[in-house]
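Here is my example:
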Amino acid sequence: MTDLTSIAPKLANLIRRLSSNQDGEVVAVSRAIIRTLQGIGADIHDVAACIEHSANGALNEHEMQEIFDAGVKAGIKQAEQKLRGASELAVQFPSARDMAMHCYRNLAELRSEWEIEFIQNMAAWTRTRPLSVKQQAHLEKIYIKLRARI
């Protein structure tokens, strides 16, 4: 596409004159537009392309959707890679019930009264209900403290 900026003011004036109700003037203006374009090595197709892409570099809706979809796809791929990496490094603990029972069997190794009471409660609670995130974290910490296998 040829750069039309050098003739833009003249071209704009000629295009405005196409609205004349005099057929002869419209034909003359059409010919003048073609001559003006030929003067810089352009043609009417360059004008059409310029109009078509006149959004100052802005993308049309289809182009924006393509870029958005590509971004979503790349984001999903990146998240999957992070999850794969994290799952390879993440420690897999046994079930809360198994951890609580291991800790309960080794209760004598605990020094803190709070930990002893917590493990006694966990041994009972893990039979009937899921633990909160905080309870799970404490149980895992005590489980590791008792040198359990992970």
Residues 61-89 form the longest helix (29 residues).
